Amino acid sequence: MTQTSDAAYNSAAYDSTVGIQAETVHNSSVYFVHPDASPQEKYRVGVRLLEDGIPSRAREMITDAIAHGYDSAEVRFHWALAVLSARTYDDLSAEEVQRLHYSSGLVQTFAEDEWKQALRVTFGLLTVLSTAHGETGPVLKQLQDLPLRQHNAILRHLDLMLTGGLKDDLWAETCERARAERFGNDRSRRVWAYFAPAPIGARAVQPHPSTAAAAEAALPVRTILFIISSVSLWSLALISDSAEATVELLVALSAGLTAARFGDRWCQEPRLHLAAGTRVPHTYRSSSDEDGFTKRVRHSFDHYFSVRTPHEFTPDAWLAHTAQVRNSLAAEIADLYRESRVSVDRVTWLIRYLAEDARNRHNNGALFEDHRHSRTPVKTKAMTVVAVAVLGVTALTAFGTAVSSAPSPRSLWAFLAMLGAAWSGHAAASLWLQVRREEHRLARETLKYREQLTARQAAHQRWQSLLDATRPSEQQMETWLACDKTSFVDEALRHHRLTWRDLITHTILVSPAPSYKRGRVRRGPWRYSHYVFRLFLFTQDGIREMSSEFSFSDATRKNEQRSNYRFDALSSVQVAENVDGGYDLELVLTNGPARKIRVKDADAHQLAPDENSREISEINLSAAGSTHTFRLLEGIAADGKGWIERHSPDNLTPFQFSG
User: Fold this and answer.
1) Residue 629 and residue 617: Cα distance in Å, rounded?
2) d(Cα 566, Cα 557) in Å, to the nearest integer?
3) Rounded to two decimals, what is the model's pTM?
4) 3-state class of 1 per DSSP?
5) Where are the chain's structural domains?
């Protein structure tokens, strides 16, 4: 199997191999309810939870809203759907049945509208379903007359409640609606965005701090010594020959200013010439010292550079042409994002952008532009050398003027001034060039940093906007999943040549398939890129089981398995929970090996600080239909066919609608 370091489970047991490719939690407030929220707000969130396939939480929210005085036919309708959704009559507690009876008595107190009629139909269906040979015609007519919104909501949330002849009468309509909605809202082109990891923010290599602090501190002293020595030398020259000394002073000043001007330009030349304007990161590692993250970054760069090539290059030729650029960028990105629990998938957007940027700069003839234009022009260097030479010659000439026809003590002072000016001038010029070189480097790198960061932030925002615009809503994801379930159940019935009248009951278990990606919104259930649907059909002759793997993006199927066994062949059912919140279902048949089924993967490490692991686990189990399946299989394993007989419609307590 394939498994990343984040996966919490790995098993080679039958039908249970699961590997995590990627996972993400969308930072959405769609299910957030402030503790001081109004009953209306709690009801609104409850309805959204119900529509998104989380009935257990919806029951809590809507019940709380009713308890605080927010009540109407619409509220009671959604509360009833939340109580009945993904459950059978046997799953209801005695308290819930009592509350349903109480609510049915309130129907007549509400104002007459479409919600009251929908509530009346819901309780009418319960009455028919709890009676072995109830007349379905009138209630079906009332159901068909409902507005489409209420009609579809009842069919969807009472799916497990509807059985027998009533289900037969509605099944064709249910399948037709599933076919119409299964690929709606551009499903195949949008699902990928739901599982795409949240892109990490843009970063760029920051400028290295200046290293010229020592030079800046020493420069004033050397400059003062140079000024004193130079003034002394020219003062002695003026004493000896004022006219000649004046000319020499003017020439020296002109040469000095020229040398400073062109020398400043020369020192702007970078000492390192890297292609495409990249810089060596702070901690560059050789290929032999690379860790797993760096290798994955390099592989990702190789991939995106090979698929984003200029027209005149083959992938291999482009990789060879950009080896220096690519390796430098890979080292930079690996260094910038080398931190705990950051997967390469979260940086892929930036790698893709850099590959596209390199291609675009090549097309514009600017891929190696920085490298070509980074060297100082020969004219600038020549002017600097000539100016320094003129300054040196002029200084020697001034020394000659100072010592000409001068007494011995004055010649000695001139010689000392000449030595002082030469030494301090060289030292001051070196320090000044070092300071200016660092200033230019810092300015150059700061500008480069700002340009890169701005461009990368824009790329990040474009990618984030694309994800936000493409990502399906929770309701759309739940609708597609429900349609897939309906299609799968319909195919199973056709294969076994069964009708709903032939079934005692049924259940469908949804679990993650091998090598999946998963995602969810905060406080919501996990949704997977690959599912395993496992359907159990219970008939008088035994259990028909059918399973298949589903690719959620295009609803394609593979690895279908079917089996049939008697009720007494199911000898044991065990549900095991691990410490990280994962669940395994183990089915033991009398004539076969134990079958271990991964129902829910671990998710404790993916919870936000304000999320409760037990609550999220219950939400996931409820959304996947696991709670109902566990109860049903455990009951049959314990009592065999006797459990089915005791829970047949003939033995149900009739639900009397009093509205």
Assistant:
1) 16
2) 27
3) 0.78
4) coil
5) 1-29+163-187+471-659, 31-162, 215-269+376-453, 275-372
